[in-house]
Amino acid sequence: MSTESTPNVVALIERKKRGGELTAEELGFLCEGFVAKRIPDYQMAAWLMAVCWRGMTEAETLALTRAMVDSGERLDWSGIGRPTVDKHSTGGVGDKTSLVLVPLMAAAGAAFVKMSGRGLGHTGGTLDKLEAIPGFSVSLGLDEMRAQVERIGCALVGQSPELVPADGLLYALRDVTGTVDSVPLIAGSIMSKKLAGGAGTIVLDVKWGVGAFMRTVEEARALAGALVRIGEGAGRRTRAVLSPMEEPLGRAVGNALEVQEAIDTLRGGGPEELWELTLELGTHLLLLAGLAGSTDEARTRLTELRDSGAGAATFAELIRAQGGDPRVVEDPEILPRAPYVRDFVSDADGDRWVAALDARGVGEAALALGAGRRTKTDPVDPAVGIVLRARIGDRVAPGGALAEIHARTEAEWNEAAGRLRELYRLSPEPVAKPATRYEIIGG
Ligand code: URA
C-alpha cells in the first residue's frame, strides 16, 4: 500500500538487514506507524532484529529517540525558577542512591523530578522501595507534580503513561523477540524517557559487573557513550558515570531495609560507598546545572546539606507531600519489619576475609525471600531482605555475622542462608577492599 511519499516497510527492513541507514523521516514513519497499529508486530520485530545485528548510526539512534519522544507528551518546566536535573541508573542490587540524591539536590536549589520503575528479576526498583514507607504514593498527576516541585523542589514518582507510549510498546515487543540487548535500542529507550521528562541536565549512572545489565566495563562504556551522544544531540547537558556492581551497593538489599539505609546516609551515617556514589553523581549534576563552580565546591555543598539535616528535612517534606508518614525520617522503626530476623554467621575456625560476594546472587536471594518480583504482576514484600554485615575486604571472626537475614519464616531464612553460604567466598588471608573507580563519559 505504499505510495511515493510513504516508505515501504519491507524496503526499510531490507535496507537495515543489509546494514544501510534509515533517515529521520523513515524512523519517524516506523515508530508512528507502529504506535498507531498500522505497522504490525511481525514487521516491527523483523526491523528490531535487523537493528540488533546491524546496529544504528549515531544519527539514526538520535532520530529514533526523538521519534519515540514524539509519540507522547513531554514535560515543560519553563517558569519553574530552578535548574532542572535528572538522573538514571541502569540498575543494580542495593542501589538506593536516588532516595539520597533527590532530596539533597532539591535542598541545593535544583528541581528534580525522578521518574522511576519497579524492580524486576534480581535488581530492585525505586518505586517498590518508596512504597515500603507507610502511605507513600508514587502516582502523581502532571499538575500535582508541578505544584509539588514548585513548593519543595522534587518528586519521586512512577513513569507517567502519557510520556513515550512508544517505549512501552516497543519494549514489550523486544522482550518477547530476543531484541532487548542492542545498545542503540537500550539507549533510545532510556533517553526517550529522560528527554520527555524535560530536564536540562541529565547524569547517567551506568553500572557494570556481575550484578549489572552490562557485565563488562567495555559494554558499559559503549552504552554510556550512546546515552551521552543522544543527550548532547538533543541539547541537554549530559554526563555518564561508570560505577562497579560486583558486590551490592551498600549493605541493605530489600525495600524497607534500603529506605532505612538511605535515611541513615542522609543523616550522616550509612555506608561510605553509597555516600561516595551520591556525592559523585550529585557533583556532576551541580556542575552541569550551574549550581556549583568547581568539584570541591559541589562536594562541600552536598556534604553541608547532609550535615545540616537539610537533605533529611527535604526527604521528610517529600514523603509528607506524597501521602507518606514523614516520621519515618526520625524513626525508621515505623518501617515494616520482617518477623524472622537472625544473623547468618561464619562457621570457619579462624579469622576470614571476604574475597568475593556476587551481587546478582544476593539480589536473587532477596528476591527468593519476597523482596522482588519474577513477573511484572508479582506482589513484593516490603519488609524482607538482607543486610550485609561483611562486604569484600572485611574481616570476620569465627562465629561473626556475615549477614542479617530478614525473612517471613524460618524455612525462608534457611533457604536464604543456604544461598549466602555459596555466595560468600572467604579467604584465610587479608583481602584489600576494592578501590572505588568511577569513569566519566561526556563533557
Ligand atoms: N532500561 C530501559 O529503560 N530500556 C531498555 O531497553 C533497557 C533497560
Short summary:
The protein has 443 residues and is an alpha/beta fold. 44% of the residues lie in helices and 15% in strands. The longest helix is centred in the middle third of the chain and has 17 residues, at 217-233.
Give a structural overview.
The chain is an alpha/beta fold and 443 residues long. The chain folds into 3 domains: 5-55, Transferase, Pyrimidine Nucleoside Phosphorylase, Chain C (Transferase, Pyrimidine Nucleoside Phosphorylase, Chain A, domain 3), CATH 1.20.970; 84-332, Nucleoside phosphorylase/phosphoribosyltransferase catalytic domain (Pyrimidine Nucleoside Phosphorylase, Chain A, domain 2); 338-427, Aldehyde Oxidoreductase, domain 3 (Alpha-Beta Complex), CATH 3.90.1170.30. Helices cover 44% and strands 15% of the residues. The protein contains 16 helices and 13 strands. It has helices at residues 9-17, 24-35, 41-54, 58-69, 97-107, 126-130, 142-152, 165-175, 183-197, 217-233, 255-266, 272-288, 295-307, 310-321, 359-369, 410-423, and strands spanning 84-89, 111-116, 154-158, 201-208, 237-244, 252-253, 340-345, 352-357, 385-388, 395-396, 401-407, 424-427, 439-441. A 6-stranded mixed sheet has the order 3-2-1-4-5-13, sandwiched between helices. Strands 6-9-11-7 form a 4-stranded antiparallel sheet, with helices on both faces. Helix 5 links the parallel strand 1 and strand 2. Helix 4 (58-69) packs across helix 10. The longest helix is centred in the middle third of the chain and has 17 residues, at 217-233. The chain is globular and about 75 Å long. The protein starts with 8 loop residues before the first helix and ends with a strand. The model has no long low-confidence stretch (mean pLDDT 96). Residues 171, 185-186, 189-190 line the site of uracil.
